[in-house]
Write a structure and sequence with these properties.
Elements lengths: L1 E5 L3 H13 L3 E5 L2 H10 L4 E5 L1 E2 L2 E2 H10 L6 E5 L4 H10 L3 E4 L4 H15 L6 E4 L2 E4 L5 E3 L2 E3 L3 H13 L6 H8 L8 H15 L4 E4 L3 E4 L8
């Protein structure tokens, strides 16, 4: 999953960004609203962490403009403002959740994962597709109750497919959401990593829809 972190405090951005990366997120950073505005309109993200006190305008005003233009990715607001009126303004502008500074990075991760799950229609923190499960908090993958060892990139790829299931996910979408913008892979790299997942999870679980992309299955198709 890919997150845009909009925070002008460089020390806080480094600390929170590292916590997100340690939690297996891809993170891109914007220091002001104008830079964030360009990125949310040109790049694909699964979530956005938005500081309210930005050097070029209130983050809530930027958020209201994005919502007005139909940008609907989950948004978690960070702010030192504790008044209920400020929180209400954030929610009214389109925020999905709100964390007051100072905060624990772990709390931000828990809230962010919950926002993304719910945006894909999943309420439980453990995603399940038949005998396959993924704990979104720990990133542990199991098959029929037995742990499956995956690389970090394989876990991110599987996580995105599980969040999106049963929808078909294109190679372009995977490239935008699962890989760093500065190291976007060609389709052959994605094919290779999907093949590795198939070897570890069962070839039938990830179906290639010709000309469309990949789809994760919960049950093995009947023979014939």
């Amino acid at each position: 999953m890919k997150c845009l972190l909009v925070e002008d405090d460089q020390a806080l951005a480094r600390e929170l960004g590292q916590a997100l990366r340690d939690g297996d997120w891809l993170v891109e950073h914007a220091f002001n609203g104008q830079e964030a505005d360009f990125l949310v309109r040109t790049e694909a993200y699964d979530s956005l962490i938005l500081d309210v006190g930005l050097p070029d305008g209130d983050g809530i005003r930027w958020l209201a403009a994005w919502r007005e233009d139909g940008i609907d990715l989950p948004v978690l607001i960070l702010t030192a403002r504790e008044r209920w009126a400020d929180k209400a303004a954030g929610f009214s502008a389109g925020a999905d959740d709100y964390v007051t500074k100072p905060f624990e990075s772990a709390e931000v991760l828990f809230r962010l994962r919950a926002l993304v799950r719910r945006s894909h229609g999943h309420a439980h923190p453990v995603l399940r597709m038949g005998e396959l499960s993924l704990d979104t908090h720990t990133q542990h993958v199991a098959l029929a109750g037995r742990p499956v060892s995956l690389t970090a990139q394989e876990t991110r790829l599987l996580s995105y497919l599980m969040h999106a299931a049963p929808r078909v996910v294109s190679r372009t979408e995977l490239s935008e959401h699962v890989y760093d913008r500065d190291h976007e892979p060609d389709s052959n790299v994605i094919d290779v990593q999907v093949s590795r997942l198939r070897r570890k999870l069962g070839a039938w679980r990830i179906v290639t829809q010709r000309g469309q992309g990949y789809r994760l299955l919960a049950e093995q198709p009947a023979a014939g």
